[in-house]
Amino acid sequence: METPGQKRVSRSGNSPLTPNRITRLQEKEDLSNLNDRLAAYIDKVRSLEVENAGLRMRITESETEVGRELSGMKAAYETELADARKTLDSVAKERARLQLELGKVREEYKELKARWGPRASFRCLPRFRLLLLFPGPSPDLLLDTLQMWI
Fold this sequence. Notes:
Blueprint: H1 19-116, H2 124-133, H3 139-149
Coiled coil: 24-115
Region (Disordered): 1-20
GO molecular function: structural constituent of cytoskeleton
């Protein structure tokens, strides 16, 4: 019961394009484009995740290498620092020992000067004082020198 203005539309695809059909075809094309864009986006995200994992691996390797280098340098500096401290301690002990010796020599000098004062040659006293100013001579050498001059 067709009216004369109506045409029968078959479902075989030979139908005329109605506005509804045009809208559906446009939506289908839009969805296809959106699916393609989504697939490209997902591929990009996956490739970035793979790249990110690689970069994390490189960072971990670099941190491990830097850690090893730092621990090696730290050990070397700690060893060097310990050696410097030992040297400083030995120098401080030697200085204290020399100061004690110098004090003893000065006391002996005062005793000798008091004992031999009138008979001591006044020319030798300035030389003996000069010897006391410079580190190095042993107390025995100083006493021998003083006795030699007296």
